[in-house]
Amino acid sequence: MTTTATAAAAAVRDIPESHLDRALDLTYLAHHLAPAAETRAYHRALLARCTRVGAYEGDQLVGLVAAHPHTLSLPGGELPCAGLDFVSVAPTHRRRGLLTAMMAELWRRCAAAGQPLAGLWASESAIYGRYGFAPATEADRVEIDATVPLDLRIAPDPRPLRLIDPADAPALLDPLYEASRTRRAGRFRRDERWWRTSVLALDAPEDHPEGFGAPRVVVLGAPGETPGGYAVYRTRGFQEGSGAPGAVLVRELEADDAPAAAALWSYLTGIDLTTTVRAGARPADDPLLRLAADRDRVRITGTVPCLWLRLVDVPAALTARSWAAPVDLVLDLQDAELPANAGRLHLTADPDGATCAPTTATPDITLDARELAACYLGGTRLRDLVRDGLVTEHTPGAARRLDAALETEWLPFTGDDH
């Protein structure tokens, strides 16, 4: 067990299972939550499966950082990723260096566990940028006028659509989801528990947001054949008290190709007694906007950062992903939180692989670890960061060459929130 003294005379150490309720009390205090008993039990089960780092003042738990063991898809592969959660500091102990001490301990544990990446959803973005995190994926919030079925510019896939029992969905849908992960970076590998709890809400506390019912699952394809796509969604009828219209809320939609996507969107916008379809997270390159014959009926109501990524082991991260074009550059990497990453790195990469090793050569680009994290999955262009003054280009054209090597056919996307 590692113990680290902080400026507040606290100690950073493991949180034992016997202190799980203390950890939840601290989380609810820091985040102003008062969940029902069923939700608390759900959170307790989640926390029990995490790596847990706590800051203690005597026997009092005053800080908490937890991490789920995840596997994240990359361009051309995947890597273990620590998914941070339950990050909390008691309001009486803020600005004492507790979070910094807990994060330092977490980085040590990531190294020991072979996790070159860490990710989170930021409640306060100003905090996590200081620790080397940056938004690596973005999502669009979409709203469709479904007063009449959506007219599309291509013919939908003609295969039949069928509703299936959500309890049967994990085994049927996971192969299609996994195929999507190989195409698009930023997605987490799921087990059956994740499907049942986080996607289908089968083993989670009953939650019907804004009057929406339980999740339903529609699949494209006849029984016995490999599905061409699926959608997980909820519906709501007209709300007489509030006047809210009937609506469809899309949790997830996956399709093999554009005709399959067209079939699913046609179905969702044609559900009786509903006039709006809302999707809280769609990829920025979703074909829906181009498929709609009447573009005015499909609105992007917001674009939000999703996965905040941190490269814990930069050489391991850079050599694990695929590269779209040859590149040979020296990066001068700044990393105040993880000095082992800092310094000059000679990156040589092409579609056959990559090497990344320390060097004393003159740098082509100087950048911080958070900017490298933003570009790592292919969702941010380095030359934009150069133009914004966040990255320094010493060799003309170096940023464009690195952008060409980092480019992906599909933009990264993260639809899950833990």
TrEMBL record:
CDD domains: NAT_SF. The active site is at 128 (proton donor). GO terms for biological process: aminoglycoside antibiotic catabolic process. Acetyl-CoA binds at residues 87-89, 95-100, 123-124. GO terms for molecular function: aminoglycoside N-acetyltransferase activity. It holds the Pfam family Acetyltransf_9. InterPro entries: Acetyltransf_17, Acetyltransferase_Eis, Acyl_CoA_acyltransferase, Eis_dom, GNAT_dom, NAcTrfase_Eis, SCP2_sterol-bd_dom_sf. Residues 10-155 form the N-acetyltransferase domain. The keyword RNA-binding does not apply. Keywords: Acyltransferase, Transferase. Homohexamer; trimer of dimers. Belongs to the acetyltransferase Eis family. This is Acetyltransferase.
